[in-house]
Design goal:
Largest sheet: 10 strands, mixed
Helix content: under 10%
Structural class: mainly beta
Shape: globular
Distance between the termini: 31 Å
CATH superfamily of the largest domain: Acid Proteases
Radius of gyration: 19 Å
CATH class of the largest domain: Mainly Beta
Strand content: 35-45%
Number of domains: 2
């Protein structure tokens, strides 16, 4: 990586939604337990955008985002639909930057996508995401969050460019991918990863799995301080563009990062120094987004609390693990 190079990347995750939110009540038709629904999607910077119908109108474009705990709609879209919106004030810990963001909530939205049963969240967040369309290269009207996704086994087939929703009861995995247990607490989807630094130090990091982020691999500021990762000379800088501004961070190289036997050899990772925002959180250690997730065919099995990763362009099991 060229020293001091700024690499733009979009992060649509919302820190307040991941750190404090709890799953909302859903007045929706229960999901089919056996059906498979293929979502109408397009992809930009490895982030999937689903074409959705809202209250019978559309189409609109929502990211398919495992990093957002609740579904999000842009204020302009909420206004167009005539939704009743409640003002929640300005909040500092939304997005990747430290700036304030106006937060509102709304009710009365029915979301139809890909033939799946309609989804009617009791509450959704009204957050300005449309302004990030230019950075991402695709229109964006909202975010399908974990409150919607957690009812399914969600298949992100990056090599084929498709997303499928599998009913939990009818899903049986018969492939040879790596299965990794995950934690789902307050809708935070966290997976344990083995990390090896270039000085052969090893550790475990609990990573937020964020399919809605096109940013590079990131370690949160508390994790960076705890392991003194700034002792390594930076390869350069990276920048992340979010709903509330831009933040930059130095980048270092790792020996590997692995989820079970699925290994990413020599990835680069951004070291957050943020005092507020998503990457200042100590609720998890870092974020893995679509830049690296796109190397897999990924199943997020919410009901069984597991990830399944089929390698597309990575080597599995070739790097020694701690204790091996």
């Amino acid at each position: 990586m060229t020293p001091n190079r700024i690499v733009p990347a979009l992060v649509l995750a919302v820190a307040a939604l991941t750190s404090r939110a709890t799953p909302g009540q859903v007045r929706s038709t229960p999901p089919s337990r056996v059906a498979v629904h293929e979502l109408p999607v397009e992809r930009a910077l490895n982030v999937f955008f689903a074409r959705v119908v809202l209250n019978g109108k559309g189409p609109f474009w929502f990211t398919v985002d495992t990093g957002a705990t609740l579904t999000v709609i842009d204020p302009s879209t909420a206004s167009r639909l005539g939704l009743q919106v409640a003002d929640e004030g300005e909040h500092r810990n939304l997005g990747v930057a430290s700036g304030l963001t106006e937060l509102k909530t709304a009710r009365g939205l029915s979301i139809a996508v890909g033939g799946a049963p309609p989804f009617v969240p009791d509450k959704l967040f009204v957050v300005p995401v449309r302004g990030n369309a230019g950075a991402l290269g695709h229109a964006v009207d909202g975010v399908l969050g974990t409150d919607f996704l957690r009812r399914y086994v969600v298949e992100f087939d990056y090599p084929a460019g498709r997303v499928r929703l599998h009913g939990a009861a009818g899903f049986a995995y018969r492939g040879n991918g790596t299965i990794v247990p995950v934690e789902l607490s307050a809708n935070l989807l966290l997976a344990p990863a083995a990390v090896a630094l270039n000085d052969d130090t090893t550790m475990t990091a609990h990573m937020l799995v964020d399919t809605g982020s096109s940013a590079r691999l990131t370690f949160n500021a508390p994790f960076v301080r705890r392991h003194n990762l700034t002792r390594f000379p930076p390869l350069g800088l990276t920048a992340s563009v979010g709903i509330n501004g831009v933040t930059s961070a130095p980048v270092i190289g790792l020996r590997y990062l692995a989820f079970g036997q699925a290994t990413l050899d020599r990835p680069e990772v951004a070291l957050s120094h943020a005092a507020s925002g998503l990457t200042s959180s100590d609720a998890f250690d870092g974020i893995i987004g679509a830049e690296l997730l796109s190397r897999f065919r990924l199943f997020v099995d919410y009901p069984a609390r597991r990830l399944i990763l089929e390698a597309a362009r990575v080597t599995q099991g070739t790097v020694p693990r701690p204790g091996s």
